[in-house]
Amino acid sequence: MRWLVGDVQGCARELDDLLKAIRFDPGVDELWCLGDLINRGPDSLAAVRLWRSLGGRGVIGNHEVYALCARSGRWPRKKDTLQALYDAPDGDELLGALRSLPGLVWLPGEGGARDAWVVHGGISPRWADLHAVAERLAAGPHDDDWLESDELSFATRVRCCNAAGKRHKHDRDPKSCPAGFVPWDDLYRGDALVVHGHWAWRGHYRGRRTIGLDSACVYGGSLTAWCQQEDRVVQVPSRARH
After folding, report:
1. Residue environment code for 62-72, b if the CB has 16+ CB neighbours within 10 A, otherwise e
2. What pTM, to 2 d.p., does this model score?
3. pLDDT tens digits for range 27-44
4. 64 to each of 28, 61, 136, 148, 166, how far by Cα in Å?
5. Domain 2-241 belongs to what topology?
C-alpha cells in the first residue's frame, strides 16, 4: 500500500504511532511524507531518521527549504527546533536526503485507484502542464537557488492566490482569504487528485479534486495518513493531548 502522511513537523512519536496504526510494512508498503517533516516539533532528528529507515519518500516543504537555507547561511536563523539535526553525526547526510526531494510528484493510481499529484502547498493556476512543471522542478541541482526559485516557492508555500498565480500570505480560514484571492484549490481544474499539506488551520479535508492532510499535529491536532489504493484515512492524536 502507498501511504501519504501530512505534516509531521518533528513529531516523531506520533509518526511512530501512525505507522503502528496502519500496520506499516516497509517490505510491501510505501511511505510518502508531504513536506514539513521537520521543525517546530520536539524531535526533527528522530522523525527524519525514522522516515529514512523505512525507505521514506516524499516532496519538499517550506520547513525543509528553511532548514537547508539556514544551514548553508543563505538565510538567517530564526527560532526553530533544528539544532539536534544540525549537530548529529549523520545530520548532513539526512539534510542531503531532504534536499534531494522533488517539489511535485505524479503517483499513478493502481488497481482502480485515482491518479494523484503530491505537493506540499499547492498547484498554480498558471501551470497548464503539470508533468512539465514536475520535470522542471526535478531538473538541475537542488542548490540554494533552486530552493528559492519561483515555482518551488509556490509549490511549497501557497494557500491563497488569484487567477494570475499571485500568492497571498493568509494562512487562516480559507473562507476568509482577502478580497481578490481564493484558496488555490478553487482554481484547480485537473482530473487527477491533488494531495497536499501545509495548511494547518484548515486541517484535514476532502474536496472533489483535492485532499489536505495537514491536521496540525504539532499544535495538538492529529497526524493524518491517506492510503491511495484504498482511499482510506487514518489519524492518530497528538501526544500533546495526553
Report:
1. bbbbbbbbbbe
2. 0.97
3. 999 999 999 999 999 999
4. 27, 5, 19, 12, 22
5. Purple Acid Phosphatase; chain A, domain 2 (3.60.21)
